[in-house]
Design goal:
two-stranded parallel sheet, alpha+beta, 8 helices, elongated, Gyrase A, domain 2, 212 residues
Length: 212
């Protein structure tokens, strides 16, 4: 059994060159509406986007995209996939056989909010996860397929999910899952650092204020 913390990594845009490519595409698309393409310069994208966002003309920023890889528990991943305007690819418990050597015959679990090192809650949680892991491995050893054995795994089982969405949808996701305090604590645990990173990279689009 292995336990890890949840996290998120921006896969794209991963550097200034890729970000500028997305911002330039937004500007080219947006200036089509105003027929002001002649105003495009090397440094005109960000001021244009700031103007667009201030006017709440957010359809324009849909032409920019970001791809993020989340490492989180499956229960929280079920909330992410509720966002319709995204593309998703997720680690498959149907095809991944955690009973073979590739996975060191162990299940990885995400430590949930409210479980602290060394307390009684952690001991109870660890015990439940160990039981689930052993039951899974026993089923695999007895010839059950991974798609059947997975049925006894808890929602805190680690999953990896890659999410692609346009910048407007990411603003919506950050508003609901990071800025507003109503989101699940484990969702905010992974989403707030991601939001703060995106906010630093491109404040013209992602500065939605401090998390509540």
């Amino acid at each position: 059994m292995k336990t890890i913390e949840s996290r998120a990594v921006i896969l794209y845009p991963k550097d200034e060159t890729e970000l500028n490519r997305e911002l330039r595409l937004i500007e080219i698309a947006g200036r089509t509406a105003y027929k002001s393409e002649e105003k495009i310069t090397e440094n005109s994208a960000i001021p244009f986007i700031e103007m667009i966002v201030k006017r709440n003309h957010l359809a324009v920023i849909e032409f920019g995209n970001m791809v993020v890889k989340f490492i989180m528990d499956r229960g929280i991943s079920h909330e992410i996939v509720r966002h319709r305007l995204c593309s998703f690819i997720q680690e498959s418990t149907r095809y991944c056989n955690y009973g073979n050597d590739k996975f060191n015959r162990e299940i990885t679990f995400i430590i949930p909010h409210g479980v602290s090192d060394g307390d009684t809650k952690e001991a109870n949680w660890q015990g439940a996860c160990l039981t689930a892991e052993q039951n899974y491995l026993n089923m695999i050893d007895k010839g059950f397929s991974p798609q059947i054995a997975r049925s006894i795994l808890p929602t805190c089982t680690k999953t990896e999910i890659v999410v692609k969405a346009n910048f407007r949808e990411w603003r919506h996701i950050f508003q609901l899952r990071a800025v507003e305090k109503a989101a699940h604590p484990d969702m905010r645990k992974v989403m707030i650092p991601l939001y703060q990173r995106a906010r630093i990279i491109c404040p013209a689009i992602f500065d939605l204020g401090d998390p509540e």
